[in-house]
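pasting for the record
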Amino acid sequence: MKKARIGVCCLLRTTFDHVTAYSLFQERVKKMVEKHPEIDFLVYPEMVIEPEEGKAAALYFEENHVDALMLVSGTFHLGVLALIIHNICKKPANLWGFDELPYDGGKIRLNAVCGCNLDASNLYKAGVDDYVVHVGNEPDEDWLIAIKMLTALRSTNVGLIGHHAQGFYNVGVDELHLYQDLGVLLNHYELEDLFGGEASEEEVKEEIKEVKAIFDTKKLNDFQVERVARLTVLAERFMKKNALDVVAIRCWPEFARNYGVSPCAMMSILQSKGYLFACEGDIEAALSMVVVRAAGEETPFMADLSQVNYQEDYALLWHDGVAPCNLWNGKCVRSLETYFAGGKGVTADFVLKEGRMSILRLDTARGKTRLFYEEGDAVFMNKDLSGTYAKVNFHRHVKDVVDTVVYEGVAHHVIMGYVQYAQAARILARILGWRLIDAERA
């Protein structure tokens, strides 16, 4: 996926200690660049003091196609600077103001916070809402994560194989609304485009070895193991050939009937290698996977909020054997089962590892897109049922979580990851003009 590209410049005024401020700017930005090699920073190489310098900085950013702006208030500065830059380069902005320097008996040395206040007020009153204000000597890490999420969403190449599952109207999308929101265009394919390709017998034999090395396959027959291995080869080739970042698959009811097994085990294997697959044709779940990946989870898991226990205050995040196999807890038997689709399911079966976690879903309802987010902890449980699943204690009572989901109409698929990024999710929602549905706003 595309690296986020952020334009950075320092806004100054000579009536304050601009020399010291610019020195601090260079030092702090250098450390930020070194800390985040996954982001492409375009640092404007001059002080920005006068309007013509603001215009030059804006043109530099626009010509280099930045995804966002970091406008640093080294000191208080002319209020026109941020407006000039935004007028030319209309991108989400982080207004970063440095902490005030120690007093030296004279007037205030930076007055940077007031500069941020001026810029924010000007932008707001000009109808601009996608800015975030940050005060401190370190960069806004949450905003950086949010920009990585935003860039990943807007640059993702997403495929829909088949359609959404029968009756799952709540995961359907308005493709032109999706384009309007994010600039994303869906690539449509048929199921046969995925499993109808060619794979050599040597490739399949090598993949069979890998399948058996990962999973206990004693409940499968040779045909089922071969089908899983062949589909894994074909799906990886399909993703590469079409340069897809994520796909949503109509994985039932036709897939097992027409191919011989469901795609669940293949999805578990390839997702552990970094590929992204959403079940049941759920495009917004697929896009949510892109967001969770950008937040730092390499192998997100699409799950149902499947079981809740109000007395013991826990939930089961479960799905039909598609979790990335690297998320296995290492304690239970990691196996392939055939209980699903009349014995043609071939799903992965294991309990997910313990640890801090979160769930997120990008979700559209009544013409408006929202972002749903919760945090909790995955805890140990025995392998008592088929599928892939985690027992979760949320950070608020599970009944409150369920009430939020059902009364906000959030679709029944969420994306789980072992990262937490509440403030970054809030910033992403602000930038995109979406409502954030979380513990604070439910």
